[in-house]
Amino acid sequence: MSATIERHDFANSAALAEALASRVADALQARIGEFDRASLAVSGGRTPAAFLDALSRKLLPWDRVWVTLVDERWMPESSERSNARLVRAHLLQNEAAAAHFVPLVNDAPTPEAGLAEAEALLEPLPWPLAACVLGMGGDGHTASFFPHAEGLNAALAPPPGSRLAATSAQAAGEPRVTLTLPVILEASLIALHIESEPKLRVLDTARAAGPVEDMPVRAVLRASPRPVEVFWCP
Ligand SMILES: O=C1O[C@H](COP(=O)(O)O)[C@@H](O)[C@H](O)[C@H]1O
């Protein structure tokens, strides 16, 4: 079973960041042109900072853009590991300061306890996503779909209408909240942002046959209704 991807390769991280920012800005602009509002989900982790900076400088009617996260660690934004903190620092600045940001974490003690409230805050967004920018870990996780995670099945095949799921895995560190697979697959643009040779090898392995539970990025690659656009640099 081979995954459908469209590769965009770049010489370095700065060139990739600019190109990905332009691609996402175009997707947002197209949706706004048609429906007046657009939504975007971005990932956290170490990779996206330069891309988010570049996107923040794009000229768009940002007051018509709703931004949320692909996934989040269940911890306050005061933590260095908070994905929301990354988005506030790198995307919600410059032109994009006018965007509406909807984080996924609330004051509940666990993702399971906070899921209904987080889902309710997502309800007013203009769905489906105009763009969803995924990352990928060296273990083949994407979003918070970690290999053999507790909650993985519900995140990949949720009850109808569920936009969020709670997952936990030793490799994930903290408990997580994540967009569900159907929400990601509905996005008009699904981009996968990866940097380094080792991550490219992980992607090659993920594209080969093998269980989804071992490398959950396979769930996206195999089920995506359109090519997943891979943005890569060494
Ligand atoms: O845990 C996470 O990891 C992935 C990949 O992060 P990176 O640091 O290797 O770029 C990220 O896409 C996800 O949003 C994050 O929660």
From TrEMBL:
Keywords: Hydrolase
Glucosamine/galactosamine-6-phosphate isomerase domain location: 12-223
Gene Ontology biological process terms, A to Z: carbohydrate metabolic process; pentose-phosphate shunt
Pfam families: Glucosamine_iso
Protein encoded by which gene: pgl
Superkingdom of origin: Bacteria
InterPro entries documented for this protein: 6-phosphogluconolactonase_DevB, 6PGL, Glc/Gal-6P_isomerase, NagB/RpiA_transferase-like
Reaction equation(s) it catalyzes: 6-phospho-D-glucono-1,5-lactone + H2O = 6-phospho-D-gluconate + H(+)
Pathway(s) of this molecule: Carbohydrate degradation; pentose phosphate pathway; D-ribulose 5-phosphate from D-glucose 6-phosphate (oxidative stage): step 2/3
Group of enzyme by EC: hydrolase
This protein's name: 6-phosphogluconolactonase
Keyword Hydrolase: yes
One MF term in the entry's GO annotations: 6-phosphogluconolactonase activity
Family: Belongs to the glucosamine/galactosamine-6-phosphate isomerase family. 6-phosphogluconolactonase subfamily.
Function: Hydrolysis of 6-phosphogluconolactone to 6-phosphogluconate.
